[in-house]
Amino acid sequence: MATHQDASAAKSRSGRPQITSRDHLEKVAFRLFAESGFDATTIDGISDAAGIGRRTFFRYFASKNDLVWGDFDGELAVFRAWFAAVPADRPMLDAIRHGVIAFNTYPAAQVALHRERMALILRVPSLRADSTLRFVQWRQVIADFVAARRGGRPDELYPVTIGHCALGAALAAYEVWLEDETADLPALLAESLRVLTGPHHHA
Predict the structure, then answer these.
(1) Is it the case that residue 31 has pLDDT exceeding 70?
(2) pTM
């Protein structure tokens, strides 16, 4: 994780401490979301609480919705790179199962924030439309991998179906995880993703 400079080391002209990282800005925003709700929290409110100007906020995030997703584009690039590195002799569906689990496994220190993030993404109506667009991108990574393995196009039925199945299994695991703070997310994902590697599926 990124390190943060001592807040006293840098001051803005107004005397407010300057923001030092995207991570810190996210933490400030999520604290406000927990206190006031996502819809009631404004970009101006987040900026003020973080000690930055509105313009500086937009250097880090394009919108409040974008902040909730964190560095999704970067994580998606890592997800795609993971599949690009899969050995050719590894069973395709087994690789997808393990890739999805790896994508959704976080260090213990980040789990609490990830839980808050996913609760917003899956439960706040104003975020659902944006979630749909992101999930399309996520499914595309799966479909591209399947198509490359099978020698077809990613928009053919089988790759598209596998992408939807993987996403559905992951979201099912998240729904259970969000309801039970004692549950282990990777274990839930491993169980739900068996739909891809059960006896009726062949790669």
Answers:
(1) yes
(2) 0.83
